[in-house]
Design goal:
The complex is a heterodimer of chains A (about 260) and B (about 375).
Chain A: H1 2-15, H2 17-23, H3 26-39, H4 41-44, E1 51-52, E2 58-60, H5 67-76, H6 98-109, H7 120-123, H8 130-147, H9 149-152, E3 159-160, E4 166-167, H10 175-184, H11 199-214, H12 228-252
Antiparallel strand pairs in A: 1-2, 3-4
Chain B: H1 35-38, H2 40-70, H3 85-111, H4 129-146, H5 152-172, H6 196-203, E1 210-214, E2 231-236, H7 252-262, E3 264-268, H8 277-281, E4 287-291, E5 303-305, E6 310-312, E7 319-321, E8 327-330, E9 342-344, E10 350-352
Antiparallel strand pairs in B: 1-2, 1-10, 2-3, 3-4, 5-6, 6-7, 7-8, 9-10
Classes of the chains: A mainly alpha (about 260), B alpha+beta (about 375).
Chain lengths: ~260, ~375
């Protein structure tokens, strides 16, 4: 499966966005602008400058300087175009084709300098020896536990954030999108730019996340994978609670009758 | 204690005699029989029910064995909604067995077992007068024969021996120490508290201020490389320092203690977002540095929202405002998050100007 992922990622990247990004042709930017005016400009403004509502709230933030990586992440995972503004824009089905996403990325990248779509060799584990991969997983695990688990949970299952937000589950997400998310800090997430975590450190995190996915699962309810607290709560509240309920039910039902014994 | 108002009693059992009860004793309620007691058919039926439940338990156990053999116990199950046929079959069979046995036993007890109502009268809890006198007699004889009253020298030396024995554990409690002294007041960011080895290492570095380095990897951080919105989990560079022969300068328990007290987070924000004067003065181009240890009970905190610059503790939801000297916005924390005064050195790396100016982490007794 890993091989399949890498192969798909490699092929995909070889054909569309990264390649297209380096072309950066005027025609692509023009196509991107046309798509932008139809699909994005309502919230982000005709020139991607952002739009404020009448009461001063931000409808869509400015896209100047967010870079192609942010567009590739937001549109490529289906978060954008958003259905409505809110505490958190959920992931949904992808609306645009890879070519259209590449065009949108090229257009937004032309608005101001920002992080480009990462090259496959930045996030791909292909070409690593088994030993290097194990070392990357060990390092990546430490980096992940220090920087990511606070919000995304130690097995990447995600968790709740204030005011209706949440940190999404990041297991099973394509390596490119994980890399882009770290690079651009979508929504309320912090940035982990290349000056913060180096490219190699980000790749180590991806290696760790993929190793989690390779961990055997043995079925049963995961209960969010947040460890003994949720499992203990379930056992105490649901398990013991239902036992107490059954005991009360048994005691509440009498086994008596008003009939008397024939000889009595 | 005066007994004259108590009812007259007869000897030891203290049952009142000759007192009219204010409310007539209603006696026991008439015994209600169970259907199984009055109806032989119901009794037979209940017997069959109980036996049936026990047979069901046997069936469940056999099915458990069968499914143990039939279904593959394996990794990454994909049947029955990823729960795994083996897991579900084993669980359901065992549950049926245990439930049927339990239900059968309860049914048996409630419907078929003997149905006598038993009354156990209360009685006085005290021993009889003779027993009490005998016990007092034994104690008195013992006291006399040991001569405890007549030989004060023996008595007093025994008491002294007991007292001295009591002092031993108190002396040994000292080994729980030494008292922390002012250790809680500073962290390893403070170079004045370093050990001679640590200071010897520092002399080889030819720098004046300690760098803030990334946690885990220990690399120094260029202020110019951080972007607005970046969050870095960091430590003082001494915890990653090694001697020329590759030995860590701080190791073992000391390292764990140092790291857990000195952990910080760096966050770069738009300098215009910064509210308080202190936060502005202690920051570099919008990069602020705070202790990572919650001031409530000391959990490491790094749930940050870049949109609001609110830092949230996952343990009890204390929320700190990174733009305003770490002010507590919500939750049980009583003190703001200590900020670290940072600047950049000649090479552009982030360095700490001095230690935190207040103890990090939860409040403690001497701190008031």
């Amino acid at each position: 499966m890993l091989l399949g992922l890498l192969l798909t990622g490699g092929l995909y990247a070889a054909f569309s966005p990264a390649q297209a990004q380096s072309d950066n042709s005027a025609a692509q930017i023009k196509q991107g602008r046309e798509l932008f005016l139809v699909g994005c400009a309502f919230c982000h403004g005709n020139n991607g400058q952002g739009v404020k509502t009448l009461d001063g709230k931000q409808l869509g933030p400015s896209l100047v300087g967010v870079g192609a990586a942010a567009v590739d992440f937001q549109v490529g995972t289906g978060r954008m175009p958003a259905v409505q503004p809110g505490a958190q824009i959920p992931q949904k089905e992808v609306v645009y084709t890879p070519e259209e996403i590449a065009a949108l990325s090229a257009y937004v990248a032309s608005l101001g300098p920002g992080p480009a779509i990462p090259n496959p060799e930045d996030y791909s584990l292909a070409g690593m020896s088994e030993e290097e991969r194990q070392a990357a997983i060990a390092r990546g695990g430490q980096i992940f536990l220090t920087n990511c688990t606070a919000c995304h949970n130690f097995e990447g299952s995600g968790g709740a954030m204030p005011r209706g937000g949440y940190a999404p589950k990041i297991r099973g997400v394509h390596a490119k999108y994980i890399f882009e998310a770290m690079l651009t800090g979508p929504q309320a997430m912090d940035n982990f730019s290349n000056g913060n975590l180096s490219v190699e450190e980000k790749r180590d995190i991806i290696a760790y996340l993929q190793s989690i996915q390779d961990n055997p699962g043995y079925g049963g309810f995961g209960l969010g994978g947040i460890g003994p607290v949720s499992e203990g709560l379930f056992a105490w509240l649901v398990g013991i609670g239902s036992l107490v309920g059954v005991a009360i039910w048994i005691a509440a039902h009498t086994a008596r009758t008003s009939k008397t014994k024939a000889e009595a | 204690m005066n007994d004259e108002n108590l009812p007259e009693t007869t000897g030891g059992d203290r049952t009142p005699v000759g007192v009219d009860e204010p409310i007539a004793n209603p006696g026991l309620e008439p015994h209600l029989w169970r259907p199984t007691d009055v109806d032989p058919k119901a009794e037979k039926r209940a017997e069959r029910q109980v036996a049936g439940l026990f047979l069901l338990a046997i069936l469940g156990a056999i099915l458990f064995l069968v499914s143990y053999v039939v279904f593959q116990v394996g990794e990454n199950p994909d049947t029955l909604g990823n729960l795994g046929a083996s897991n579900v079959a084993l669980g359901v069979c065992l549950a049926v067995t245990l439930l049927a046995m339990g239900t059968g036993i309860i049914q048996w007890a409630r419907k078929l077992m003997g149905d006598h109502e038993i009354v156990e009268m209360r009685h006085s809890a005290a021993s009889s007068q003779e027993d009490r006198e005998a016990t007092v007699g034994i104690l008195k004889t013992g006291l006399e024969e040991s001569g405890l009253g007549r030989r004060p020298l023996v008595r007093n030396t025994l008491l002294a021996a007991g007292g001295v024995l009591g002092i031993l554990p108190i002396i040994m409690l000292r080994d729980l120490g030494p008292l922390p002294g002012d250790k809680l007041d500073h962290t390893i960011w403070d170079m004045n508290t370093w050990t001679p080895e640590e200071q010897a290492w520092w002399k080889t570095q030819h720098r004046t201020l300690q760098r803030v380095v990334r946690d885990v990897v220990g690399t120094p951080i260029l202020a110019s490389e951080l972007e607005v919105g970046d969050l870095v989990n960091a430590e003082p560079e001494i915890v990653f320092a090694t001697t020329p022969n590759g030995q860590p300068v701080v190791e073992g328990t000391d390292l764990l203690v140092a790291k857990s007290k000195a952990a910080v987070i760096l966050s770069r924000m738009d300098p215009q977002d910064i509210v308080s004067e202190q936060t502005k003065n202690w920051s570099v181009d919008g990069i602020v540095c705070y202790s990572k240890i919650c001031t409530h009970v000391g959990c490491p905190i790094s749930l940050n929202e870049r949109t609001t610059h609110h830092l949230l503790c996952p343990c009890h939801q204390s929320t700190f405002d990174l733009t305003d000297s770490g002010k507590v916005l919500f939750g049980p924390a009583a003190r703001p998050l200590p900020q670290l005064d940072i600047t950049v050195d000649d090479e552009g790396y982030l360095v700490a100007r001095h230690d935190f100016d207040e103890p990090v982490g939860p409040s403690f007794w001497e701190r008031g």
